[in-house]
Amino acid sequence: MADSMIERAAMSTPPGTARRIRGLSDRTIAWIFVSPTIFLLLAVNIFPLIWTIRLSFTNFRANRPNAEVAWVGLRNYERILTDSDIWQTMQATAHFLFWTLFFQVLIGFTLAWLINRKFKGNDLWTTIIVLPMMLSPAVVGNFWTFLYQPQIGLFNYGIAFLTGADPTSFSMIGDVALAPWAIIIVDTWMWTPFVTLICLAGLRSIPDSIYEAAECDRASNWRQFWTITIPMTLPFLMLAVLFRGIENFKMFDLVVQLTGGGPGNTTTLTSIDLKREAFEKWRTGYSSAYAIILFVTVFGLASIYVKALNKVKER
Amino acid sequence: MSGYSVTEPSRGQKWIAGILVAGYALITILPLVWIIATGFKSSADSIAYPPKLLFQPTLEGYVNLFTTQTRQTTEYLNANPPQTWYERIVHDRGLVIAGPSRFGERFMNSVIIGFGSTFLSVFLGTLAAYAFSRFKVPLKDDLLFFVLSTRMMPPIAVAIPIFLMFRSLGLSDTHAGMILLYTAVNLSLAVWLLKGFIDEIPVEYEEAALIDGYTRFQAFYKVVLPQAATGIASTAIFCLIFAWNEYAFAVLLTSGTAQTAPPFIPTIIGVGGQDWPAVAAGATIFLLPVMVFTILLRKHLLRGITFGAVRK
């Protein structure tokens, strides 16, 4: 009965609206389309996050699922924040973050600026430059240990060729002083093109007319660079830093394959340390608290940064 | 002064810029060239000092990659002459082929998990992106931010509860588990990218279709989907590359049946230490498809790596 009423209503209205009455409503379709995604993300991201928070207040160990689990309150957090080893890994991470961002911004921007000179074949060279960043960090990182071999490695040979040093006199991944730089070099090699591509988009977004106006005002090239080029690419550059910052804070695969965190603890970044606590020492409760601290740090820093980025954009 | 432009760099500038960029490009692809070259070297050539630029190419590395071998006595070797070219390569070094290696299996796992999760995340992502783009979804901005924020967690941090969850659901080291996990990780990228692509399709097309009597659903798959085809294809390639390259979850949650190639390739060892030509051969086979895709994708590359935040 209800069906026939809809049919009748449909027949008496223009055909377009009629079909809409018979089909599902927009609201229903919206829900059907969105809910699987939200459900999956809840199941694989939010539910685990809540579980991690709960575990972080316990002394649960995943390798002893049947042992009694005790509620320990905030003790895990207390122990992490007062642990000097963890502060050391934080320092290693900060060192890695700072220098990778520094080199990638410097080289990445320079390259973008050069590519924007619009010489012949710049598309081809850009495509070649971009290749390393799309490849598997674990597989490439593993191969770099070969390039870093003191006796036979191509990297040591190249450095020796340029400086005249003995290629066997230094080991990039075996030396306490060099290992932090070894991971910075490979990460910079891999991810500089990321910054280049974003900066290039920034440079290309500057309208020619601004430069033409500056030329009429007899502004020097140097002045144009600092008052037009840099401020107008800054939002793009900051976006690149945001992406690279978050990615490198999470860094795991490349460094684990390159140095495994060694020698000693010199390249033990937070993710590597966390993996050891969680999946080698099986201190699940403790490492859950560790994970929450890392997540809050990343989220907090990223939110502050995004606010700053929006301010720059508004200018 | 006709044709003079103040914004066009001078010829000298162009030359210097071109040479510097080309120089950087050549240095930066050297490690990749070295991977491909090492795959065709003999073990002795691969560890020669100084590093060999010119060498006699051999398929030894590829044969070692795909097979396992055992040492045999001279009498046995003489009594059983090699039948095929690959047996001959092994025979020359006093070995016989014992059977296939695990590489083929691991590579197939990468293919199955990569394509499976790509299909699912693009399918679900297209639906969600269409809804976010065209309908009034309550809390739209919050939901979209939530979708993105799931990418900020370090994988190791998420891996702890996922490990426990998979263990209790029996999903540990299964293809289904990995496909589900990678789908969830890729969904944020798929939704954000596809929303950008669908936003660019004029709403008027669908409105015209609706007036012509199409239902909303028909308008979606007969009008919007064909328009979004390039966007969907490039999103799919980005999802595929991510799943293909992923290491952290793979190394923690798989060990055998569902292990993908990235955790496997570094563990390839030959007789007496790491067999670099075999590792390089495996890396070459594994990396080449991504290189090809990157070249095909170069127009949409920027968009993909920034979650659609920067569009050219």
TrEMBL record, chain A:
It is found in: Cell membrane. GO terms for cellular component: plasma membrane. The keyword Transmembrane applies. The keyword Acetylation does not apply. CDD domains: TM_PBP2 (cd06261). Keywords: Membrane, Transmembrane, Transmembrane helix, Transport. Gene3D superfamilies: MalF N-terminal region-like (1.20.58.370), MetI-like (1.10.3720.10). Pfam families: BPD_transp_1 (PF00528). Residues 90-305 form the ABC transmembrane type-1 domain. It is a multi-pass membrane protein. Its main location: membrane. This is Carbohydrate ABC transporter membrane protein 1, CUT1 family. It comes from Tropicimonas isoalkanivorans.
UniProtKB/TrEMBL annotation, chain B:
Gene3D superfamilies: MetI-like (1.10.3720.10). GO terms for biological process: transmembrane transport. It is found in: Cell membrane. It is a multi-pass membrane protein. InterPro entries: BP-dep_ABC_trans_perm (IPR050901), MetI-like (IPR000515), MetI-like_sf (IPR035906). GO terms for cellular component: plasma membrane. Keywords: Cell membrane, Membrane, Transmembrane, Transmembrane helix, Transport. The keyword Transmembrane applies. Coiled coil: none annotated. Belongs to the binding-protein-dependent transport system permease family. This is Carbohydrate ABC transporter membrane protein 2, CUT1 family. It comes from Tropicimonas isoalkanivorans.
